[in-house]
Amino acid sequence: MLVAHPLKTEQMMSDPSPATKPSWRFGDLSSAELMPLLQQYLIAQDTEANWQLVWLNNDGQPVIGLLPKVSWFVYDCAEKTSNSNEQAALYQVTKTCRDAVHNDITHMSYSDWQDELISYSQTYDTDNENPESVSDLNEKPSYHHGLIGFIGYDIAAHELSPAAKIERAAQPCAVLAHYDIYLAPEENHGNTGWKLTIKATANDSENDSDNQQKNKMITALVSYLDIVDKKLTDGCLNKTQLTASPLPAPLVLKSRWRKQDYQQAFNRTQKYLQQGDCYQINLTQEWQGFFDHNPSDNGTLPMLIDYLPALHRNTQAPFAGYLAVNPFNPEIKDNTSQHPFELLSCSPELFFTFTKDIDTGKHHIITKPIKGTMPRSTNIQQDHAYKQQLTDSEKDRAENVMIVDLLRNDLGKYAKIGSVKVPQLFAIESFSNVHHMVSTITAELQTDTHPLAVLFGSLPAGSITGTPKKRAVEIISELETAPRGAYCGTLGYMNFDGSGQWNVLIRTLQANTSSHDKLDKKRHLSLWAGGGITVASDCDAEYQECLDKVGNLLSVLTQENIHKYP
Prior knowledge:
It is built from 13 helices and 24 strands. The protein is of the alpha+beta class.
């Protein structure tokens, strides 16, 4: 095991060329097990540092971002939004730099923020020969330097239909950050470990204040990670020794709708479908709960991240992830931008994979929409029967092909003419609690199109809205009567060379502190589930599908027995 001396790390920073990177085993913990330990330990060691840990499972290529260079936090700003439908809504964008004493707060539109991110990314896309880019489109992509974060459903749906005045939840609408310091798996002499990658660029200089701050923080960071690694290796460190927090208590979430509420919303959905407003509408419902103060733990609120290891162990979701904003801020400020927020996703659904061919410089894109679901069974024969039933379902095939056509149209705006292909239709993929019908669409992007423009322009995903998309989001806002927040948005990363991977934020928990009641110090949680409704849908079957999709997550949270499927 190689562990770099802190001073060697500082010396490395003055040289933008690749250098030896420190690495650790961390007791052979999985990335989901390691994440909560690191977040709580690092913040406990230095409460002033701009720790903003983020974790992506990334289809088996995990990454843990640690200390971002620049972060953008986007919040709804109703008082700055014009009543005119002709003028774009403005959002409060708080830009935080690692070396800055004060945050830069501006008001800008969704499209202006997109343009700023593209411009920023192009500044750093100077290494056209990046050895970590891939030319094999079948190779799994990995994060190597760029932006990581999420864009919520609410902001994207509002942008798609401003006149509908779609409500935005009282929480961050989006968060993206430039991670030049991160952990990623490394295999060394047959032993899997974690390497610390520290990106130095042509923009860095020894006299740059951010670079000086970065060097100091890396020195401290390496020493912290050395300690964690040694104690885990010696077997004398566990979670209760890292923090004073007890193991997470059972957590009960209750459905906001009763069965009859869902029935009413379903019936109204059917009316819109029969009138021809849409061909398909994705109707979802919410489960709610809250963390209350634990009197035995100095009144500290539990954290959603405490449930991450168990949730990921159960779901093994390929596109899982976790992100937090001000998670350890003990005071609830009047400013909504200070409210703690957590996002924990166990998503099985890929939104986009972007690859860059290092030989041609061309960008390619893959999307794999999910539409069609059947439950799993602990009985092997019954499990196979459910899978075959999904394979043979004409209704699910019809729903799936609707979304495939929608996404083909979305990509057609950005793709080279004739490059949009559907190499696979109606494949069945099995997850921890359900079977899903999944199709695959590929395309080559136009040379003058930036992948971030494709991402922004294609949100929200068609698989969680319906078709046509604009009318679907308007109907969803009317029927669901509550904002979705981040749910059904996207979480992922975009390297500065335009490669990247983004999920659809389904099977996703959100936790935030109410901004409406100053006396309400509880941290509220929400979990959503739903499905595409067509004129051929059956209410009872669709309602059961919601339960099938979140049943194992609810069981993990309540610490009930979890079914093991074949």
